[in-house]
Fold each of these.
Amino acid sequence: MPTISWTQRRENGVTLVEAVIQSTTPTGPTAVTLESRLSGPVWPPRSEGVPVAGWDGTRYETTVEGESRVAVGFASPAEPSEPPIELVESAPATGMEDEESTDTDAADVLRALGDPTPPRGAVPASLPEESLPTATGEAENTDDGR
Amino acid sequence: MILAVTGGKGGVGKSTVALNVAAELDAVVVDADLGMADLPERRGPDLHDVLAERADPVEAVDESGVVDILPCGRTLVGAKAAEPTALVGAVEAVERQYGRVVVDCPAGMSADAGLPLLVANRCLLVTRADEFALPDAIRARALARVLDAGIERLVLNMAGESPPVERVRSVFDTPVVTVPRSDAISRAQRSGRPVTAVEADGRASAQFERLAAVLLPD
């Protein structure tokens, strides 16, 4: 079972948690699952606005190679509590999981290339949500000036 | 079959090639340029609605024209509400219903250019033979390779009298098909139709037939 060490601090109303998972096996990767113990939502690190791979709600899955370590961090609006993060699962990583992790999915593309949707500031704010074009084309009849 | 039509630079004729190849293949063409759509608008739901879960992808396919098309909305509000990653499921749903799908990619290297290449098994790389378009086509080729969309042909579009086919072929290491600069193509595109609907026996039509034959052996 890998070991976990952590630190946490409170800054501007946000709790910042850092953890290091150290492998205890000499060889072979270990799949580990960590879970936040803070009583609030997890704000995972993001790349181009998309949570980095491995995060699912309050849980984070990663792989630790033999005799090495990995670091993980997250933020939360919740108050610090001890421990802020725990190792909940650990098992030797199988080849299957390795293969899965090399498969590119749509979120990977978004993370790597950036979200193409226009910035909020570029979108006219006066248009209420209801005036969005709908499947039936009703928006054409609204009097929003278009 | 899901075929992406990409190229990196804007204005090289991706939408023209997508529409014409879709016509030859009897495929649905999806206008995936979420920010600056080029293919004709049609009445009814569009891709923005589909990606915002306001419309079903198959029901958004418009069959009223010469080519079946899943059009894209023109508004910033629609583009903002669209979830880009939903394109993958939407295109796959259209493929299940219609069999053949051609996805017209936007210019650039953002995720909206990448996602069609992710869902496509094959692609056409469209470029012009000029100093601006070719470097962008090289970048688009790199993206297609990373995302595993096999490059079937490089389409040298708006080709003049003696296009540098051999040089382009050797740089890209991909077979080249040229499409001539043609009034017929421009006229057809303006009315949202493939060139075969305007000038069925012209050279441009013949080249799109060649492309389709490459994509559909037998």
Amino acid sequence: MARQLTPLGRILIVLCGLALIGYGLYRYGVFAKIADVLAPDKKAEGTVSKDDFGAVGPSTGASASTGGTGAAVKGGTRLDRPIKVAIVTWGGYAGGIVANGGFPPNKESLFYKDQGIEVELLVIDDFEKSRDAFRAGGDRGGVDIMWSTVDAFALEYGGLKKLNPKTILQYDWSRGGDAIAVDGSIKSVADLRGKKLACAEATPSHYFALYALTQGGLTNRDVQWVFTTSAVEAANVFKAGKVDAAVSWSPDVYIAARERPGAHILASTKEASNLIADIFVARGDFIEQHPEDLRRFVAGWLKGVDQANANPERTALLLSKSFSGIGLEDAKGMLQDVKLPNYAENRAFFSAQGMVANYHSIFKTAQGIWRRIGKVSEVFEPYQTVDTRFMEGAAEFFPAAGEVKPEFEFKAPPKSAAAPILTKTVSVYFPSGSSTLDENAKAVLETQVVELAATFGNAYMRIAGNTDSVGSRDANVRLSRARADAVTAFLVSKGFDRNKFEVVGNGPDKPVASNDTDEGRAKNRRTDFEVIPR
Amino acid sequence: MEIRQPLSNHKARGLALAGLGVFLGSWAILSYAEIIPNVILPSPTDVLKAFPMLHFEEALVRSAGWSIYRVTMGFVLSALAAIPLGLLMGTFPPVRHFFAPLFDPLRFLPISALVPLTIVWFGIEEMQKITFLFMGTFVYLLPLVVEAVESVDEVYLQTATTLGATKGQIVTQVLIPGSLPAIAEALRVMNGIGWTYVILAEVINARYGLGALITVAGKRSHVDQIFALVIVILVIGVVSDFLIRWINRRLFFWKA
């Protein structure tokens, strides 16, 4: 006689059955498959490596130039209100602040007296709010012109393209404004492997971090990213000791590095001088309706840059009076974190042939990086995102603007003891026993080294030739030295100062792999490019 | 329309739908006719199109799951802490006067100021996010619980005393059942407040999370995605609100 099951017993049996089925499903990955359908994970990030930077040919397509120089820009009407410009608390706006004599529109300014326009500078420190203001536009209580950086603009262009925004002016290079603060145990970029690195996601800090990592031989997958929503937050977690490194901006990053015991600054845009370019972007409808006002804005701003560069003391005083909460000493510091490019430097920056690190190359590289890590899906040609007519039209105001002078003077060669920020290892192929560069080797240098040397414009570079252990040591040392000399001569021919480079022939003395295998010997035949701070 | 005239369920639903319809209709007209430019106000189609992108590339469902987990944990923890303490404070005035200067001013605290503090104290993992949400809701919940206990009608207490109830009986038989419906209502409001903090809670190191997704969409100037994510948060908020209401009605039938 079978005994009747109690309700509790039935429930228990059902539960056991369900548990068994559930375990089976879990064990054979059915749950994971269902989860992938119902809740797919983020699109896998690609790997960003050193090959993603610098391997950019000259930009295709002509810039949106009309060819006319020095004349008024045709079309449109004149504006009957001040041009509204979104800025942040940052020294790079010194040119415009000098030209405007402060933030509010006024008739005493250089903008008005010299160019007949009025300009209103609006400090909007919150990134997203400044974008909201730009979307609204100057006629609807927002702004006509917003700040960006070339790398950030490459990221946000797709989202803004309905506004048809165009870059019209570069107002500064970040020179120390962005920096990487690290724990005392980290001496070079290579030491960051496996470490926790904090930065604000999808910002110039993130871009700077990717650049430094890849040039130092790592990829984006070699560190543990800790993303924050703002740069200040990144500096704070570093200061609190929750991460090993952080990329952030001045002054927060320097304060954090000073206040955390043992911490220091690994690298900053003081060395990586040509990486983060701050630019002004104008709305498409504004460009169409008031091009002449924009030409005058560009001319007035760059005249302000000349005055600001000629008179840093007075400029600092004006900055401290204008920005709230900024004292005179702070203002002087803010000016030291930037370089204000003048008219000639602006022209060179926007020409695809002008400088090695120019608008087109940086935009294209940045766009490629963001695309690789899944932050942009649509790509644009750099020339679509820039309008140089205003710059060209302003030529009449700068008759003396000639060639761009080399910005950095390298007097003494670097101290041999100085530790490099990062070491980029490149295999430059030479025929056996020869120290002559063939076309192939030149192409490798062009893509892998020229851009690095230009980006770290304000740092020395040690070029170290290395060989394997085959043959006599003396001959190898001589040969590696001769090869490093050949590489240096090639770089100098690209327009770099000879004093920027220190040449070293290591011969077989610094192997990175065993000389017992073919593979190891191939690894040892290499050229190291060490970036050394001043 | 008469003042406070009750409506039939049927009519109430109809009006709610009409309100929603008018809202959606004006959104559609304003955006499709480009009365407000699309870069400021994306059209309903733009927002709908953002969903597949968010689902397949940005892990929308996982992010929603993580955000629900964080908000719920913050909510449950603050309830566990605030309800017993609030009952004590509401029942015994000396306890209330002891804690009041500690907790009363906290309601004026700008909650964003807590972000750096919670990072320093609790690190950058889940602990920090949940603690932040806990602190954010606790300071509002506690006074509501105290108030719920205090607003139990004196008549019930006197009746119980007259009938010879002991102190313990008054608390367990009168004050707790009398205040629970109002406490449950307070919890429902707290769930809403928790969701308003979700962006702040996910400012740091959130691989998944609706708040984190909104921040990155903002950096990329994808207003359509921001709208889509806001809609997701609203839907989750409304559904959870509805659930809590339903549970409250079941549990506290005596206060219907």
Amino acid sequence: MSVSAHLPVAMVALPMLTAIVCLLLGAASRGKDEDVLQRQRQRQRQRWIGGLSLLLLVGLSAVLLQQTADGRVFVYRLANWPSPFAIALVVDRLSAIMVSLTATLCLFVHLAAARGKDARGRFFHPLLQLQVMGLCGAFMTGDLFNLFVFFEILLIASYALLVFGDGTHRTRASLHYVALNLVGSALFLIAIGTLYGMLGTLNMADLVARAAQVSPADAPVVRAAGGLLLVVFGLKAAIVPMGLWLPPTYHAATTPVSALFAIMTKVGVYAIIRIFIPMFGPQQGAVAGVADPWILGLGLATLALGTLGALSATEFKRMVTFLVVASVGTQLTSVGLFTEQGLAAATFYIVHSTFLTAALFLLAGAIIHQRGELGGRLSAGPVMYQGRLLGLLFLVAALSAAGLPPLSGFVSKALILAATPAAWKAVVWTVVLVTSFLLLIQLSRVGSVLFWNLAGDDPPKGPRPGPNDSLVPAVVLLSFSVVLAAAAGPLDDFTRATATQLYDRDAMIERVMTDAQPPPKTRRGDPPPTPHGFARRPGQEAP
Amino acid sequence: MALLLTITLPLLLCWVPLLGSRLAGRHASAWLAGLVALGSIVSLVVAASGQAGDAVQLVHVPWMPHLGLHLNMRLDGLSLMFCALVLGIGELVIVYARYYLADDDHRDRFFAFLLLFMGAMLGVVTAENLLSLVVFWELTSVSSFLLVAFKNDKAAARRGARRALGVTGLGGLCLLGGVLLLGDIVGSYELSDALASHDRIVADPRYPYALVLVLLGVFTKSAQVPFHFWLPGAMSAPTPASAYLHSATMVKAGVFLLVRLWPALAGTEQWFLMVTGLGLATLLFGSVVALFEDDIKGLLAYSTISHLGLITTLFGLNTTAGVVAGIFHIMNHATFKASLFMAAGIIDHETGTRDLRALGGLARHMKSTALLATVASAAMAGIPLLNGFLSKEMFFKEAVDVGAGMSQPWLVPTIATIAGAFSVGYSVRFVWDVFFRPATGKLPHDPHPPPSWMQAPVALLVVLCVVVGVAPALVVQPVLEHVSLSVLGTQTPAVDLHLWHGLNLPFIMSLVAVGAGVGLYLRRDLLTKLRQRLPALPSGPRVYESILAGMFRASRFVTESLHRDSLPGYVVAVLASGLVLGLVPFLQAPSLSVSRVTSVPPAPLIGFVLLLVLGALATVRLHHHRLLALLALSLSGLGTALVFVELSAPDLALTQLSVEVATTVLMLLALFFLPSRSPKGEQPSGRHIRDAGLAIAVGLGVAALLYAVLTRPFSTIADYYIATSKSHGGGTNIVNVILVDFRGFDTLGEITVLGVAAIAVSAMLRELSIPRPEVAEDGRRWSLDRHPFLLRVMSRPLLPLLLLVAIYILLRGHNLPGGGFIAGLVTGVALILQFMAGGLSFATARLRFDLVATAAIGLAIALATGLASMLFGQPFLASAFTHVHLGPIEFELASAMAFDLGVFITVVSVLLIILVRLGRVGVDASSPSPDPSPDPSPDPSPDPSPDPRPDPSPDPSPDPSPDPGGPC
Amino acid sequence: MELVLALGVGVVAACGVYLLLRARTFSVVLGLSLISYATNLFLFGVGRITVGAPPIYDASAGAVAYADPIPQALVLTAIVIGFAMTAFVVVLALVAHQRLGGDRVDQPLPEDEA
């Protein structure tokens, strides 16, 4: 098969390989723990390898994006078995978008961390790579159980990254986060089991096809599994009521890690889109519409409560964590409209909010650092060294977060409002507009406290920005808010095409299930004996 | 194209002034800003010169086709007039500010913000696409926020700015909603389409909502009652900003939108009631309050409010003549109010105060300023021969005409006259108290005439007031007609501007107003008394702030009551949601048939399940005594394994057993450092009930779900695996073939998880150091026997045997129960047993190689097997196999076995990393500090967990720290 | 037979949930292990129940009704992942116990930490 056909698996294999290399490097300098110089050199090597690999990954994901743009769908059947028996990586437009997001975001997280924040442990880089591997796999796999496996990879990597660095509140937050997610995994397994027990397959497309034929008598069981899946994904996406864990957890993480977590909630939202649009969509007969009312309702509730949380916050980073919750709510609301436009708007918003959230966390890190012992507390503080620059960046971020023109925040919100069907206009518009107003109020307040309400005048009293706190990653991530707004037209086209593709259930099933004749498997070495004529077909008899 | 330039110049070059003082001197920024504005003026002239009288010039700038959001621009009479206002007065303000801010360190920023605002304002008035109008609308709010908060070290400035942003921002959001609704009705966001479809819009059921939303935007921006309060608060802006934003431009954006959408939205009862009603209220309220303001700028602010009310009223009347009058008054108000603000700024600048009670007798010191201010206020008061008079006359006329059609014909004219009287009153007060009455007291610094260039802009505007007032027919009539034509099109009325219409009712009203106004000023002490009698109106700011405060309180309450940051809380939320979402489908279901006969369980199964269940129950019962609970737990695990055996899953049984052993060892080690008992009665008794209830509910739910699945027919893809595993997977153990071939990708992921766990664990433990308890909590000393003799003797010979078994299991795994996992786990357990027996030094002496590295190598092997298949043009992980003949033995060798080898290596090293590291924790603690008790320290019997400290006897091998796990 | 298994799984799950909601980390660990037993059995069970027909392909046997191998493979994966997670949680519990000076799941934070 052609080289480009291997792209999907490369997105998983490359980070894994990099992680292994980093680990072996770390091992190479074993025993010389005391040799600081040695450790630095070895960390430097890890930085380079990790960064280059991420750069390469961004390139690959760009190719994926370009290849899928015209509607092509990669179906990569692992181990060369036919569908639905092989685990298949299925890369359509949405998957391409998500993996590109992941690669880009993680590259900047890497840059932000590689300036010294990774020094607290030799395992940051392998862990980051494995996190990327888990994310990419989760965004591409077309197999339900395989999705579980990749969830576990990205989760355990995130556990490890969360514990990164010490601090008691961090420890407790990790404990909660881990235990809660283990419960989530158990629920996930039960849901998978139920689906397999009812439908007898694990390939998502096959599941979709079979779910449509379920008899009304059996439907409730499948629907129940759907309900459980919603809880599992809702837990990852941090929807209320399952999502209360998010603010303390993200608040506890170190700056680059919480920036990285900007993509973690998206995993949940992605899974909801991936499963609930086709499998429990309108054409699915007896199992149709399991979650329709729930998703919209919970989304609106999440948006409202996240906004209230942001309003109530007395510390900057904590407010940002609540902004994350609110953005999740917005995405869910938009998905919950269950219209193509709604889904397109949600996709647009996902791209926008991933970069914005990460930028906000990096910004928070810098601000908290430069305000010295006052940290992020929202009260009159010292003049910051980079006060003006930070102020400008905050202004941009705040505009985008509150959905004010002309940045991507406004565009995506306008898309969502415009996508709302008449039936929901009243409630959705009210919630979205009111929350934007409240965020506007709070952000203007926060901004004027942080940058204008200064106890004492120059010279700055806060600590100087060290080499560890370059603002470049934050600036670039923020600039995406501008770029996305400027390129809103093409991006809008792409997301709409994405939505159309996602709603075209039959085409997807057809693509995944029809067996693209894998070339016969030859034995390595001498020609195969008779029994190995390998055009595999389902239901083939044993010799 | 030139039009595009007009708007983009200030927006894109707004940063230029920032270079100002860095590049050249203190005032460079002002000149740079002036230059940019000039450029934009020139391009506007170019653009305007290109088009005929009533032509409309459209520039298309596509942005988001699907959404219908474009930056299309439109140049017609109305937008041209407003562009002229924005740019003309903007240029004057820049000149003025260059002197006003002469000694402000931050003027660069001021001019940058000013240009930003200018661009945004131009965008609003030239917008052809309604959505892009909203975009620029909000931009004006933001940039005005920055301008008002310019003196941001003053709390008042910050508060005023925030309030302004809040109110206008809210209006902007409403406007967005209204515009989106309009777009739904019209089917396009293009202004032209909206203007063309008045009838459709008005007839549509959504019209009232759209109207209300749009008007909310208008009223907040144009400071109509009850949203007026932000404007006086915004007076903390530098006076040039006030002269620009709060007289000529931003506050006019609202009324601009009124007249812009007039052809589309007006002409209905709702329009008349809402617009005229609020307009009149604002007109009256503003003029009354202005009379009692002691701050000059406050007075001007309220007078602005009242004049905006006047304009709003005119547009609300649904008469074309009203529209013309409104447009006319917009121009006039802009000219005289801007000049008055600038004059106020001069006064403030020269005397250091804006308090009317302190000021007085300035006419002697600054004659020219006095003259200019007097003329301008006369215009404001509507004195003949000045522009204010003309538009006010027109207003009175409209008031009379419209009043005639109403049930109380006197109402509107009366209100108009009263308001006129008050405006005369405050105008007189402004002039007289500041300039002509004898000075009351000492001023902050004694006044002297301002720099002449600072007065030039004022003079220019005042001259305009006079010229227009004297010769309207010549000067403005063509302009006014042109503008009105662009709004009203064919139905434009004949515009005739004359000073003298004869002694008609409007003129009498004017006379009354002037007379009464003077009277009001003279006897305003009476009014003050009266005002003190009346109950004070709730002040807008206070209401607004208290609403916000309420919201903040509410948010705090909700958040605190919701986010308790408690694990049980989270778990309950998740499980409860799971129950609900899992249960609902069954409640909706019509019937729940059991369509498959269930079979009778064989006796052993019952026994095993009982073991499982009893183990679990015992664990709960004993969970306060942790050791016993652990034993009970492992019973339950044993039960699980046996169930697997009984239900024909040998691989699972093996895996479960070995994992069970490993887990138990792990937990015993943990118990060594944790308290050995969980105290009882920590949680309120109610909690136990609740938890038990939830637990039972969940248990029932799981059981029901499983039963529901088990009793339903089943068709699965498994048959394919069974059929092909031997022929094409090269192994008879189907489970193993699935693991390493069919679903090898899962396995790869799974060992990755193991790897991460190992890394994380060693990292966490590296920084962990726990002083090893000398004495168990129940007071017993740990057993003194370091390495139980029996265990030592038994385990040594056992090792090779176990390893042999492991290899065997590994090799046969592909065909018989076994495989990488099980082999790895067995090996791991075997080694662990050794270390328990031999103690740590024994372990480390045999672990000279780096475990993390070996784990990585294991992963690498697995990954490599996967990648290798790509070299053969196969997909990742595609396996191949062949028959190998070694003399008599003939067996199949599958490439999947290499994969399994990788799995094996990973599992072994991970197991060792986790358990050995955990075993060393106590050592890491005690080795740095000299141990107080040198006596050979005890093994934590009764449980056989490894000795956590090294032999005190000098060990030949210095502990080579068997993994590089740096603390994260 | 189905009923027995279902009930067994249910009871174990219930016990697990109850322990999970206790105040101490160790109880939580116990609870999680019980839950993983229940989950694995559930996942195993959905392949339907077969006695005495392990999925070891036997060409001579001809058409045998083997036990469904897929859930077995899945459960095997799940068990191993579960082990990794348990190991992580146990060690994390130790770390928490040392850093927070107690093994409550909601251990109140020492004052020095914000």
